[in-house]
Description:
This protein is mostly helical. The protein has helices spanning about 15-25, 30-35, 45-50, 55-65, 90, 95-110, and strands spanning about 40, 70-75, 80-85.
Amino acid sequence: MLTKKKKRWDDIPGCSLEAALNVIGGKWKGVFLFHLLDGTMRFNELSRLARGASPRLIVKQLRELEEDGLVHRKVYAVVPPKVEYSLTEEGRSLHNILHALSEWGKIWVDNHPVERVIKP
């Protein structure tokens, strides 16, 4: 008997906050969404924002954002391949939320200094 591969949305979220975090949660999704507010970006530009992340993880998170309707992926039939990412209307609706999170993050970082380890 073949079993259907479970998708991220097969389980109904318990509340609206859980639903929102399911969509924008993930180490790099918020970063990608925030920077795409400034306009279209190519894969390499986005991957530079995700320092230390594997290309596989970056692609996975971008595909999830596309699947959830927040990001549009445009592929050009050229060699080498060219792929651009931009926000959909629904993705742009996160503008105020993403800016508020960014402002909160700045304040949090200022109030929680991290010890800098100097490597020899």
